[in-house]
Amino acid sequence: MRITDEQKQAAHEVDLVSYLESKGYEFNHRGTSYKLRIAKPFPGDMSSISIFDDRKGWKRWSNGEHGGDAISFLQKNMVMSFQEAILELTGSGTAYVAPPPKADNHIHETKDLVLPKKCEGKYSRVFAYLNKTRFIDPQIISKMIADKKIFQDYHNNVVFVGYNEDKTAAFACVRGTNTKVQYRGDCDGSDKRYAFSMEGKGSSGKLYVFEAPIDLLSHATMANKITGKEDAWIAHSRISLAGTSDVALEHYLSSHPEVKEIHFVLDNDKAGREAVAKHKPKYEEKGYKVVDHMLKNKDMNDELKEYINAATVIKHNNEGIK
Question: What is the 3-state secondary structure (H, E, C) of the chain?
Answer without folding.
Answer: CCCCHHHHHHHHCCCHHHHHHHCCCCEEEECCEEEECCCCCCCCCCCCEEEECCCCCEEECCCCEEECCHHHHHHHHCCCCHHHHHHHHHCCCCCCCCCCCCCCCCCCCCCCCCCCCECCCCCHHHHHHHHHHCCCCHHHHHHHHHCCCEEEECCCCEEEEEECCCCCEEEEEEECCCCCCCCEEECCCCCHHHCCEECCCCCCCEEEEECCHHHHHHHHHHHHHHHCCCCHHHHCEEEECCCCCCHHHHHHHHCCCCCCEEEECCCCCHHHHHHHHHHHHHHHHCCCEEEECCCCCCCHHHHHHHHHHHHHHHHHHHHHHC
